[in-house]
Design goal:
The structure holds two protein chains of two kinds. By secondary structure, chain A is α+β, with helices and mostly antiparallel strands. In chain A, 26% of the residues lie in helices and 34% in strands. Chain A has two domains: 227 residues, P-loop containing nucleotide triphosphate hydrolases (Rossmann fold, 3-Layer(aba) Sandwich), CATH 3.40.50.300; 100 residues, Nucleic acid-binding proteins (OB fold (Dihydrolipoamide Acetyltransferase, E2P), Beta Barrel), CATH 2.40.50. Classes of the chains: A alpha+beta, B mainly alpha. At the A-B interface, β6 and α2 of A face α20 and α21 of B. Chain B: Keywords: Cell inner membrane, Cell membrane, Membrane, Transmembrane, Transmembrane helix, Transport.
């Protein structure tokens, strides 16, 4: 089943939340939508679920029109399921009843599960998949954050929906649990073979789990690509900064040579995307830079801060007002106040 | 959202229907009241305003009203803030029971409290009989009205203030202390100003409650010929002069305007105040009173003994007396007062009338109020807000004003056509539903606000937006809030006096009217017996409710 978003616009009053968004979620694909808060990613997800209606454009789920500006199929009649940011557990139902509810009311539960015994078997199976087989009679108030998330996942996957929507499902968990749940969600994806649309503001989550990433900013899609493409070849300054935390340098491109704007220093291309070249930019992520004290033929600056990160040191270097972030291995040490040259690692 | 094209037309129709009903039931009565105050034989003019405002009696009544309302509000303000501070911040014991006693005036109607006070402090009262040398306090006076009203309304100030106190982070005070402030300076300069929105809000509600109150001045003022606006309007209407209705309408407009000024002032003040950002309530004590704890506790319980426990004991004892004024000794006690009131058809019927009124009002409230509050929470827009304001009007306005507006609106719903609504119980049903609907709406709104939007959406995404969602998810989640609102509506309607004193029909008195007429005819023993009976019924009702609640809770726990 594919899901297509065609020329979608969404306005809330005079605020344009989505501007002409086009996107296709392929069958069985894990697609992450990545962007800062307020970029429209949650609005997009809620449009797919049916909780919002588009101002303009069409949404097609499984080749059927799910939403236009005039007609919207409500969420309860779509073959989708959703994991909510707040988990949205029902405080008065126990774990098993959550999954039971989905099996009873979801309208796309396969005919194989219509029989009560089969449905109960499916509930057992799902609880086992998420590791909650011992917790069926627990109430939501008696569960930890991670267990709540598992209930939310179990409820969403039980009816075997063809499209699973996830709205920042890990943002309410602590750091360690988040890493653990990444593996769980990946496993679930392999097991269910459903298409997953995963909304997040954490580039680590998107890079780790997704088959493709859609980077959004201010209601528009900035770039669509595999995690490697997004990270290594950002097409816009926003993607370079948001995903790779890259430093951007202004200048002019001449073939594969980059000339800096105010200093007569040239750098060779290290794999900059054509789009950035057209905008006369050179992007370097913190780990793509080395510092040198000897080389005089480089752009120069002064070390402003130095922070120990465990595996490396992070430096901020002031280059005529621009702050350049540099990550260096432990053996390449510099001190605050030291004059250094910025050199791309080739 | 989810505008299915086929349902679109219906939805619009319902919306228009709802707005139409709200205009008919909530807006038009007020408009007709205003028109009535200007309407004389010669058309629209200021004749009645002129007559009322040049009458010296009007100014006397206005002065009484202001003294009573301001005086009682000051008492409520001091008591409410003091109790809120003690319950929120100190380590006094038995806070649960203290709170129960604070809320007693919410449960027991103020006219019964007035009656109880007279039986305790009055010339033939228990206190005077026990302590001969003590001069009795004539409660049939301004001071009597002010004190009973102050005691009856201080829970409002308490209710508004106690959680504001709890919400103020204790670091605020600690920061003041570390900057060199003494305890008192920290309280007066930091804590109290932060609690001011609650204190002010509660005081304005107490002020409005004072304007609205009819029971206390009717019981304590009428025998001493002291009138306030609410009782004066009542006397005008039942006096049946040639221009009684018009003059009452003018007085109602004046009373209504004072109330609206009060509401607007409160609204402006609360708007200006900055809400405290924390939403967490801090229940642990901040002041350990040490040795002073016992003194504080003794003072608190002495207060409750003097204001509630002994007055009610006196009332119950009086109700058993063979004749009024006899000593409280066993040989003077009998059940004859109870036998009399229970043998009278009209008193027994008044209980059934009030039960029926309260029951129907509650059921209609639950249905209409819950549906309305759902749309108010999920689709908050300007029209919904305006509709909520309209529903608030009959409760915000003094009951006497509403009662008069109801007469004008329903005597002849269409000029020239009298379907007999006024003069039958029908007008009481209409008046009660319009007056108390907002209580159900407010509790419904609170209940729905506590159900996270995503919790409801989770039901929809799992395939149900109708029966399944409501039966399995929404109703179980909102039920406690909705039912506690319904309880409030039921109790308010059951013991209501003000509105029914004007609207009752001779064949259907309410409980409040029955007690009032006993009292006004001088049958103190019957009125105390009837009041004791009602208080007893209320206590039994509450006990049953708590028992069933506890039982249900145990069942749930066993089920785990």
């Amino acid at each position: 089943m594919t899901t297509s978003i065609i020329h979608i616009n969404k306005k809330f009053g005079s605020f344009q939340a989505l501007k002409d968004v086009n996107l296709t979620v392929k069958d069985g694909e894990f697609l992450a939508i990545l962007g800062p808060s307020g970029c429209g990613k949650t609005t997009l997800l809620r449009l797919l679920a049916g909780f919002e209606s588009p101002t303009d454009g069409t949404i097609q789920i499984d080749n059927k029109k799910a939403a236009t500006a005039k007609k919207v199929i409500p969420p309860e009649r779509r073959n989708v399921s959703m994991v909510f940011q707040s988990f949205a557990l029902w405080p008065h139902l126990n774990v098993r009843e959550h999954v039971q509810f989905a099996m009873k009311y979801h309208r796309f539960v396969g005919p194989a599960f219509k029989e009560k015994k089969k449905a109960e078997e499916r509930i057992d199976e799902v609880l086992k998949i998420v590791g909650l087989e011992q917790f069926g009679s627990r109430m939501p108030g008696e569960l930890s954050g991670g267990q709540k998330q598992r209930v939310s996942l179990a409820r969403a996957i039980a009816p075997e929906p063809q499209l699973l929507l996830m709205d920042e499902p890990l943002s309410n968990l602590d750091a360690e649990l988040r890493i653990e749940m990444r593996h769980e969600i990946q496993k679930l994806h392999r097991l269910t073979k459903a298409s997953i649309l995963y909304v997040t503001h954490d580039q680590g989550e998107a890079l780790a789990m997704a088959d493709r990433i859609v980077v959004m900013n201010a209601g528009k899609i900035e770039q669509i690509g595999t995690p490697e493409q997004i990270y290594n070849q950002p097409k816009t300054p926003f993607v370079a900064k948001f995903v790779g935390k890259a430093n951007l340098f202004e200048g002019t491109w001449d073939g594969s040579t980059f000339m800096h704007k105010n200093v007569s220093v040239t750098w060779e291309d290290c794999g900059i995307s054509e789009n950035l070249k057209e905008q006369n930019l050179y992007a370097l992520r913190p780990e793509q830079i080395r510092l040198s004290t000897s080389d005089e033929s480089q752009i120069r600056g002064t070390v402003v801060t130095k922070q120990f990160q465990g595996k490396e040191y992070q430096y901020v270097v002031d280059v005529s007002g621009q702050e350049i972030v540099v990550d260096l291995p432990l053996h390449e040490q510099f001190e605050i106040g030291e004059g250094v040259g910025i050199v791309p690692r080739m | 959202m989810s505008a299915i094209s086929s349902g679109f037309f219906n939805r619009k129709l319902y919306k228009v229907l709802a707005i139409g009903l709200i205009i008919i039931f909530f807006i038009i009565p007020i408009i007709r009241l205003i028109i009535m105050s200007f309407l004389s034989d010669e058309g629209i003019n200021f004749d009645y305003y002129h007559a009322i405002l040049t009458d010296g009696r009007t100014w006397q009544v206005l002065q009484n009203t202001l003294i009573v309302v301001v005086g009682s509000t000051i008492i409520s303000l001091i008591l409410g803030t003091a109790f809120a501070w003690m319950v929120a911040y100190t380590d006094i014991r038995m806070k649960g029971i203290v709170q129960l006693f604070i809320f007693l005036p919410f449960i027991i109607p103020s006219y019964i409290t007035s009656l109880a006070w007279v039986q305790f402090f009055g010339p033939a009262g228990l206190l005077t009989k026990m302590l001969d040398q003590l001069p009795s306090w004539n409660l049939y006076s301004m001071s009597g009205i002010i004190f009973v009203m102050g005691i009856s309304h201080f829970p409002l100030v308490y209710l508004f203030t106690v959680n504001v106190f709890r919400k103020i982070p204790r670091e605020m005070e600690l920061a003041a202390r570390i900057s060199g402030a003494s305890r008192w300076t920290a309280f007066s300069k930091i804590v109290f100003p932060m609690a001011l929105p609650g204190v002010v809000g509660g005081s304005f509600i107490a002020f409005l409650g004072g304007l609205d109150n009819f029971g206390i001045p009717a019981f304590l003022g009428t025998p001493a010929n002291i009138s306030v606006l609410s009782t004066y309007i009542y006397q005008k209407v039942i006096g049946f002069g040639p221009s009684a209705f018009n003059e009452a309408a003018v007085l109602s407009v004046i009373l209504g305007v004072i109330a609206i000024i009060g509401i607007s002032l409160q609204w402006i003040l609360l708007r200006k105040s900055k809400p405290i950002e924390t939403t967490k309530l801090d229940y642990s004590p901040r002041y350990h009173l040490g040795k002073k704890k016992l003194i504080a506790e003794i003072l608190i319980w002495l207060f409750f003994a003097m204001t509630s426990i002994f007055p009610f004991i006196s009332m119950v004892m009086t109700s058993f007396l063979n004749a009024y004024g006899l000593d409280f000794v066993p040989e003077n006690f009998s059940l004859k007062n109870y036998a009399y009131i229970l043998s009278r058809n009209s008193t027994v019927e008044s209980i059934f009338t009030s039960l029926k009124l309260a029951g129907v009002t509650t059921v209609i409230g639950i249905i209409v109020g819950t549906i309305f509050s759902y749309y108010r929470v999920r689709k908050p827009n300007v029209t919904m807000r305006l509709q909520e304001y309209a529903i608030t009007i009959p409760y915000a306005l003094p009951g006497m004003v509403l009662a008069l507006a109801m007469i004008f609106a329903w005597m002849e719903p269409i000029p020239g056509w009298n379907p007999g609504i006024y003069g039958s119980t029908a007008i009481l049903y209409i008046a009660y539903v319009t007056r108390f609907l907002i209580l159900q709406v407010r509790s419904g709104i609170t209940a729905f606000q506590q159900v996270d939007k995503e919790v409801e959406e989770a039901a929809r995404i799992n395939g149900t937006n109708g029966f399944g969602k409501w039966k399995r998810i929404m109703i179980p989640l909102i039920a406690p809030g909705v039912l506690s609102g319904a309880m409030l509506v039921f109790l308010s309607a059951l013991t209501e006096l003000t509105v029914s004193s004007l609207l009752y029909s001779s064949n259907a008195e309410t409980i409040g009217v029955a007690i009032l007429s006993f009292q006004q005819s001088g049958y103190t023993l019957y009125s105390t017996a009837f009041s004791s009976l009602i208080v007893g019924l209320i206590i039994v009702g509450y006990f049953l409710l708590f028992a069933s609640g506890a039982l249900r809770k145990r069942k749930v726990e066993n089920g785990k």
